[in-house]
Amino acid sequence: MPAFDRKDFEARYADLLLRARRLWRITLTLLVVVWVALLSAVWLFSFVRWPAWARGVAFGLFGLVFVGWAVAHSLVWWGPVARQVGLVCPFCRKSLAAVRGRPTGLRVLATGKCPSCGAAVVEPGAPSAIVPPSRPRPSPFAALGLVLLVAASVVTGRRLNADYCRLQYAGALTAADTAHADSVALPVNGRSRTPGGTCVNYRHARLLEGRR
Ligand SMILES: [Zn+2]
Predict the structure, then answer these.
(1) CA 190/CA 88 separation, integer angstroms
(2) What's the pLDDT tens digit per position in 30-51?
(3) pTM of full prediction above 0.85
(4) Out of 55, 116, 177, 186, which could bridge 172 as a Cys pair, Cβ 3.0 to 4.6 Å?
(5) What is the whole-number distance in angstroms between the Cα of residue 92 and the centre of ligand 1?
(6) How far is CA 35 from CA 65, 80, 143, 163, 191, in A?
(7) Residues having C-beta closer than 5 Å to ion ligand 1
(8) Kind plus residue range of the DSSP H or E element containing 98
């Protein structure tokens, strides 16, 4: 006689997936907010004139939120929540919902076995409709938001390059100074050796005129 009734296991697992999804949405929102704040900083303040440490803090914050989420989600979050919803193997006391941050509920339902110790914990079979699919379909709004965010990032990258190159030419008094500024790599996508990778391309394309 397996430790879990199938219906009961499925209900607990569905509850846990919904909580995971809610957390994912909150984190994603947080990431977008921080990213938009960084993009705004390029437009509102002369970001290229910030000291290196301030730019470091700005991007570090973004990295921290991202890494923090990844660690919390994959290592810390699943264990306690599996315990909360009662999805723990009665034999080895390990989580039946996830192993090292990877959801295992569907595998447990299919095989009937604990992913850690292999003990039979539930009657094996196909999951019923109450278990949501592992990958929810993204909403059209999310897709549109992503497109807008990428477009805003591209435009902001150009603005950042233009600001940066203007700063290079600002102090150029001689032809040698100008030639040196010409050869300065663009901060965004400036590492590529393809044409378009240095400030001279922005100068020739007249992207540095106008605003100061
Ligand atoms: Zn076990």
Answers:
(1) 51
(2) 888 888 988 898 888 877 777 7
(3) no
(4) 177
(5) 4
(6) 11, 30, 17, 19, 22
(7) 89, 91-92, 114, 116-117
(8) strand 98-99
